[in-house]
Amino acid sequence: MDIEVVLTGIDPKLGKRGEIVKVSSGYANNCLIPQKKAVLATPQAKKAFEAEKAREAREAEDRLTAARQAAHRLQGLGDVVVEVMAGEGDRLYGAVTAQNIQEALAARGVKIEKHDVRLEEPIKKLGEYKVPLKLHAEVVANVRVVVAAKK
């Protein structure tokens, strides 16, 4: 005899959190429910998971809106200048990394995480570079970074 359960987590064979699936009563009672991988699909449980889905959707939309606003602010930011020690031939002593760019942005009042700076490789020469910042899965902002020699 099959019964309906609501999954409380991701199960590769059954589905993802909040989905209602039919499983055998033995599997539900002996495995899923005791291990807290699912709960019986009562009207209250269904309603609670629907409310949670709606809340998560609103939060995801809020994060996307905030990322778009941050990208818009970054467009008006202008050049981000990183000053470093340089030698002959405009070669740097060391390199400009994602952390250096994050610190330069923080000094200008923009808070981002280091892993959001998408440098393919560290910058090792003076000049201007277009550096992408991944603010959200759907939002990428480009910042112009000017690497200049310290005086």
Description:
The structure is a single chain. The chain is of the alpha+beta class and 151 residues long. The chain folds into two domains: 2-69, Ribosomal Protein L9, domain 1, CATH 3.40.5.10; 71-149, Ribosomal Protein L9, domain 2, CATH 3.10.430. Helices cover 34% and strands 32% of the residues. The chain has three helices and eight strands; from the N terminus they run ββαβαββαβββ. The chain has helices at 25-32, 43-75, 98-107, and strands at 2-7, 20-24, 38-40, 80-84, 91-96, 123-125, 127-136, 139-149. It has a three-stranded antiparallel sheet. The protein has a three-stranded mixed sheet with strand order 4-8-7. A two-stranded antiparallel sheet has the order 5-6. The longest helix has 33 residues, at 43-75. It is elongated. The relative contact order is 0.13.
Short description:
With 151 residues, this protein is of the alpha+beta class. It has helices at 25-32, 43-75, 98-107; strands at residues 2-7, 20-24, 38-40, 80-84, 91-96, 123-125, 127-136, 139-149.
CATH class of the largest domain: Alpha Beta
Mean pLDDT: 90
What's the tally of helices? 3
Encode the helix/strand succession as letters: EEHEHEEHEEE
What is the distance, rounded to the nearest whole angstrom, between the alpha carbons of the first and last residues? 79 Å
Q: What would CATH call the homologous superfamily of the largest domain?
A: Ribosomal protein L9, C-terminal domain
Shape: elongated
Portion of residues within helices = 25-40%
Radius of gyration: 25 Å
Q: Architecture of the largest domain in CATH?
A: Roll
Topology, number of strands? 8
Which topology of the largest domain does CATH recognise?
Answer: Ribosomal Protein L9, domain 2
For the largest sheet, list the strands in their spatial order. Answer: 2-1-3
Content-based structural category: alpha+beta
Low-confidence stretches: none
Largest sheet descriptor: 3 strands, antiparallel
Per DSSP, what share of the residues sits in E-state strands of 2 or more residues? Answer: 25-35%
The figure for the number of domains is 2
